[in-house]
Amino acid sequence: MARDRVAHASPVTVCTYAPPGTYGHECGKPATVVAVKTSDTESGIYYAGRCKDHAHAPGHDNAGIIRLEPINGQVNMLLPCGWQRPESVA
Ligand SMILES: [Zn+2]
Predict the structure, then answer these.
(1) How far is the CA of 65 from the centre of ligand 1 (A)?
(2) What total number of domains does the chain contain?
(3) 35 CA distance to ligand 1 middle (Å)
(4) How far apart are the first and last CA of the chain?
(5) Is residue 83 situated within a structural domain?
(6) pLDDT for the residue 85
(7) Which of 37, 65, 70, 77 is 20 to 30 Å from 55 by CA-CA measure?
(8) Which domain holds residue 46?
């Protein structure tokens, strides 16, 4: 249902950790683990790739991580700009 709301799918392949002081400059190394955060994606969670150097970096881009998972084909189903989760689901 509601597949038309999905803007695009984004598979997790690289580390998207941006070290403090390097705003917008993500690491880009191949991800070795997937960090899971809550988010306003269709599934309510967001997968972020992390390399071995950044998987356990404290705070900053790793704030809010609820768990780490092995890489297993995780794909973020990103929603169009402006879409808001229905209140009944929030
Ligand atoms: Zn990294």
Answers:
(1) 15
(2) 1
(3) 12
(4) 18
(5) no
(6) 63
(7) 77
(8) 3-78
